[in-house]
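>> received
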Amino acid sequence: MLTKGFDIGFKDADTTKGIVTGYFAMFGNKDLDGDIIERGAFSKTIQERGPNGKQLIKYLLDHDKYKVVAKLQVLQEDEKGLYYEGKIGSHAAGQDFMKMVESELINQHSFGFKTIKEQYDQQAKANRIKEVFLYEGSAIQFLGANPETNQIGLKSFDDYFAKLEKFIRTTDCTDETIQQLELKLHSLTALLKPDNTTSKDQEAEKIKKLFKTFGNHGH
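>> returned
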């Protein structure tokens, strides 16, 4: 299974009703893999496997098949991308997910797939993905997606670090979720340990290490 991540947060998150909406994918943009997803690429797989089909496309946290956190009620293509509406589960994983959404620990999306049809576009120097088989859509914690690393500074990670630290200190999530987040915090603390590196090249190298540590979701 391949994955693609997008630096797009929730379109709306009503934690009172337990409803989240957003986009798992965007159309027409060339990503870091040199791919462009075309509108229509998800049509067949949604019809066959989506909410109005066999209901086999899951809503996961961080591509973890053991963490189905919501049920997809709407999954459709629009002019922008792959739009969804999901109902957060009442089980422990779902409720922990909702608390993480409220604390802004989750603000990106991704999807797991395999390519069915593609065509190389010589003019765009890109691979146009025309049809995919969709396994799942995921909500992703900050360090899990695939953004352009040269546009992200270490301050972005510091902000996430602060939110994560506060969440662990104040949350009433399950022990399992807290333990997993504490491990992430410990690793993040080690990687962000202050040193004398100040050049842009050295900062970029540190950022790459962060993504390598936290962003491995199937690429």
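>> Residues 149-214 form one domain.
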